[in-house]
Every structure is written in structure tokens, then in C-alpha cells.
Amino acid sequence: MSALPVLYSFRRCPYAMRARLALAASGQTCELREVVLRNKPQSLLQASPKGTVPVLVLPPTADGAPGLVLEQSLDIMLWALQRNDPGAWLAPSHGNYQDILALIAECDGRFKQALDRCKYPNRYPDTNTEDERTPAAAWLHQLDARLAARSYLFGNHATLADMAIAPFVRQFAGIDADWWSAQPWPHLQAWLAQWQASALLASVMHKLPAWVDGTAGLVFPFAQKPSPGN
To answer: pTM, whole model, 2 decimals?
Structure first.
């Protein structure tokens, strides 16, 4: 059993992406296990029967009891940032912590529902994609208006909200790049582009080999780009 927290992750999953961002920003070392979702390792299913990522398994306690299992991306972000928050992601310069959580809840609720139906229409044959795009676009318009007044969603520096929401805006923007670029959202588009070009995002988006049960994962955050042979 690993002496480090174990993170089960999938590179492109926006939930896993936000968890990796927080772990990297806080410098919380863990063992990263890249999962192939169509062939989930047994150790993941044993730790979290729901079989989704991210999952963070903490080491056993001093008395040998199993470590806590965090199965929600936001819980993983908060676990990391409450231990070390050098970028003040939990301390907005505008608004407060509860406001941050409320905006993330909007993202994870109706916006994520619309995002899924726009991105995967074959999964929702009874849903009209245009009907789903309308509320998603309305919410994104609100983000653009918020960003017109300040550089980030809650002030003059990135917070938990920016890092928790950006992976989902990225996914929505990728559905139809021409449509995205044609929208009257210059502040939101610039915010996303800046995030996508950041060194922090690049540091958590390396392509990794699938982890296999019984083998060692990779120590994360990476001190340097991992080689394909690692």
C-alpha cells in the first residue's frame, strides 16, 4: 500500500483535471494512477465502487485503519488547499468563500447538464441540442459580464472558482470552436485562453500510460515532464 495519497485520475476528465490543478498548486505529493475508464482497475473499484474519477485514497492512519477516501473532485481540491494555499485560491479579493461555492454549484448543476447534452447528443436522443445550448450560453454570458469588471471570477487573482469552472468551460468551447469564437464574450474568451496557456495547466496535462494493478504509479506533481517510459 502506498505511503502517499493515491489519486485515480483520467487526463481529459474535467473533474479529474480540477483535482490535479489543486494538488499541483498546493504542492501536495501523491501517487498518480492514470485510469482507462473502459477498463477500470480493481483497486479503484475496491476503493470507490462507483468507479468514477477522480478518487483520492489517503494513507492508512497511525493505528492501521484504512485511510479516508475522497470521491468528489471539489472535496479533493479543498483537502489540498486547506493544507497549503500559496495562491490564495480560498481567499478571494472580491466576494467570499460561500459565493465561490455557489458559483461552482451552478457550474456543476444546470450548466454541466446542458454541456453533456450538447457534447454527447447521441446519449440524449430525446433532447434538442439547441434547447440545451441556450441556458448554457446564458450562464456563460453571465461569466463574461463578471469578468468585464475584474480579471478573474472573484477579483484580481485566480481562486477555487476559476480553477474548478475553467475545465468545463474549456470542454464547452471545444464542442464547436467556430461557434465559441463568434460569441460576444471577449472577457470570458480571454480568461479561458489565458488559463489554457498557463504553466499550471500544462503541468497537469501530460499524456501518461494507463496504470496497471500491482504496479507503482507516478509521483505527482511532476518535478519535470515524465518520460513515456515512466
So the answer is: 0.95
Long-range contacts of 69-78 (CB under 8 A, 24+ apart): 73/15, 73/16, 73/18, 73/19, 73/164, 74/18, 74/104, 74/108, 74/164, 76/7, 76/19, 76/22, 76/23, 77/18, 77/19, 77/21, 77/22, 77/160, 77/163, 77/164, 78/22, 78/160
Residue tagged 489543486 (cell numbers)? 22
What distance lies between CA 183 and its chain's CA centroid? 24
Cell of 160: 477555487
Residue 99 and residue 165: Cα distance in Å, rounded? 13
* pLDDT tens per residue, range 176-187: 999 999 999 999
Q: Distance between CA 9 and CA 36 in Å, rounded?
A: 9
Q: Is there a contact between 82 and 75 (Cβ–Cβ < 8 Å)?
A: no
